[in-house]
């Protein structure tokens, strides 16, 4: 496994007999080593050879999805049996059809029974609540008030009286009707509108009584549980009945009969209870039978689904192959790794033997100018880092892969911004939890955020380890310093006072009593001292510049390896060398001055040195001189930086133009020396295959590339200062939470206040520092790799190798379930 360059790929052609084509594709899918090309791009899916088979298995997939939904609704788990005694696909198709018909019939009968049961339940509620409503209505003022309203001779005329001019056109008044009523149930959300419409439609000539139902009722139409109320509407006349009936239908109010005689009411209640008991027994038997069917289906559902998916994928791949005129052979073209050829040839021989084919599949290599796909063989540790690179762009075939460097540089740059070994330990525990339980999490359907954390568990592991390392360097444990690696080199001015109780650190300053510095990392006495921020600012800012220049130089060096691998001397002489000179003549020299200043302990102003290196290169440096001969060295470096710009701009386009003219002239001579017909054909072929060369486009492209690199050298170096900024912000936030929350609460002796302060400190640490700050540092480290590092050498314009594999089908099934 080589992560530095992608696997060497080759385009192969397979000529397989028609009788063994299915087994051949199946065996190759189990290998997961070939990416087939579509040789029928002009044909629609319905015009391809195996369109009927694909359609058949698509229908089987639909039936299996229906079974899966039914099993999920029933709450039954689909077991994972061992894949033995695989059913024949023709038998499976017939069996799926029978099971679907049986299940649809069971569901239809169950729905009808459920609807009947719901209607009977509503009728039972009407009978129970209707008696109460009738009893209260009959005793309303001894029945006089209601009777006086409903027995009014003008009631029917009032109900049916036309509006406006229609009254003049009415010649015969309606006849007096007898008292009537309608009972039923209506959804509670519609009750107010229902009453209002009834009042308007009958012009107030009706009497409505309602009784709420305490429990939710299953609606017979929708099968959902809703709140309903029982109503009774008293009216007079047939026209009023017709209007009220239509309003009930419009509002989805179910009407039920209600007997007025007490004996008939008691008899009807008994009949309803008896029918409900019978329906419940029938429903229980139906549900038991349905669960048995679903259990049998669920036991083999995964096996059937994978079988159908594999067959559908095989025929979909067969549709990509070219069929010869005799229809006896199928021709396939596919990309595969060179190292996989022996495995592929062995699979082809086994397929021919198992299918009893008299002719073996012909396996031959095709030579093409098409760029192959990019393939890296990764494992569960390296795959996450490779995905970080691929998210920027899939690398061009066999160009240098930044993924192998990202394994170290990405978590390290993250840790520079996140340096705190207390927070690092918290991240480490989270990563170890994900790694230890990776088998359990791998078999579960996780949410989006949890799935990302699980996929990047090894990235988080290295981020945590490097955060602990940089935390030791910064000497910060939740912003608290510790003397872990030895004694401090400073002491209080009063020898009898300890550093912890000494106030000189924030006022007059401590005294350095030892020439031996603190063994590892920052001396703990710097934290809380009056010069803490100036010292840490200077250290972290210069460290960020050093790390940035080192990583950008690594990117430029990798561009040299790319140019050498692809035999591009032009890129070496006119891109790699001037870029290396320009970057190091300016910022490489700055890095050298930073290290030299640290070693000497001198106090020159590096800002002044770098600015006047360009503005006044011949002036005397004075106190800013760090080494002998610094002025002539700076003049030479400035000249190199100025020369590097036209070096990047002009020679490469001119050289490419010269090569193109020589190639075109040589091709023309070849045409003249040969025969008329053959060489003219070759000339036409050259014109088709040759790429157009526009000198203006090449020059403009090179100019853009040069300007981008020159400006990027400055902006990218400044961009690495985010390491300093985020590290400082993380440290200050941690110090604020510790000083202003935890220590503030600890000043009180009340244990409740201390407990609340500890809880708030833990919540702020987890929410802000361990989640938000982690995400922020991750994104900034991602930007530094994508923009500042990878743009020096990484084109990222390739396409990924996607082999035809049954393993992805199994993963898709797990994702679907």
TrEMBL record:
Tagged with keyword Transit peptide: no
Main location: membrane
Keyword rRNA-binding: no
Key words of the record: Coiled coil, Hydrogen ion transport, Ion transport, Membrane, Transmembrane, Transmembrane helix, Transport
Name assigned to this protein: V-type proton ATPase subunit a
Highest rank taxon of the organism: Eukaryota
Family: Belongs to the V-ATPase 116 kDa subunit family.
